[in-house]
Amino acid sequence: MARVTVEDCIDKIPNRYDLVLIAAQRAKDIESGSRICVDRDNDKNSVVALREISENRVSIEDLQRSLVMGLQKYVEIEEPEDEEVEIVSAEKELADLDETFSSDMISDEDLNSAMQIHGGDDDDMMDLSDDAADFDMDDEADFGDDGFDDADDLD
């Protein structure tokens, strides 16, 4: 049998680029151990693949599908759309809460000025000097220290 050419397969697959890709995929399949559908006649795998395509012995759709699957690096996994929408809405809600709390925060200056005592009359303020005069350091009942009246006792 005469060798098959690309022109013999153009009526099956009109695009030459597609034909070459599909024939190469079929040749790879034959190389990996797939059963051939025509007599080999001492031909190489690429010629056998072209002969199979020209004689309609192989499914072109199956070859195209296996070609695409072989070239894919990432397999697309469909995730439920509802979960994705819930996640996006939850993230937006958290971002809104962060903005709310960050705007409610008081600066250090405002906090310090708010904590200072602002009084009107001097009479309202506590005078600690009178209380300090009434305090007796020698009073043993205040501290519960029976033996330590003076600093000299520590020697």
Please supply descriptive tags for the structure shown above.
single chain; 155 residues; mainly alpha; Eukaryotic RPB6 RNA polymerase subunit; 8 helices; 55% helix; rod-shaped
Task: Give the arrangement of secondary structure elements.
Elements lengths: L5 H4 L6 H16 L13 H10 L5 H12 L9 H24 L3 H8 L12 H7 L5 H4 L12
Helix pairs in contact: 2-3, 2-4
Structural summary, described in words:
It is a single chain. With 155 residues, this protein is an all-alpha fold. It has a domain at 6-71: RNA polymerase subunit, RPB6/omega (Eukaryotic RPB6 RNA polymerase subunit). The protein is built from 8 helices and no strands. The protein has helices at 6-9, 16-31, 45-54, 60-71, 81-104, 108-115, 128-134, 140-143. Helix 2 crosses helix 3 (45-54) and helix 2 (16-31) crosses helix 4. The longest helix is centred in the middle third of the chain and has 24 residues, at 81-104. The model has no long low-confidence stretch (mean pLDDT 76).
Coarse morphology: rod-shaped
Under CATH, the topology of the domain at 6-71 can be stated as Eukaryotic RPB6 RNA polymerase subunit
Q: Largest sheet at a glance? A: none
CATH architecture of the domain at 6-71: Alpha-Beta Complex
Supply Rg: 46 Å
Per DSSP, the total helix count is 8
Q: How many β-strand stretches?
A: 0
Briefly say what this structure is.
This protein has a domain at 6-71: RNA polymerase subunit, RPB6/omega (Eukaryotic RPB6 RNA polymerase subunit), CATH 3.90.940. It has eight helices and no strands.
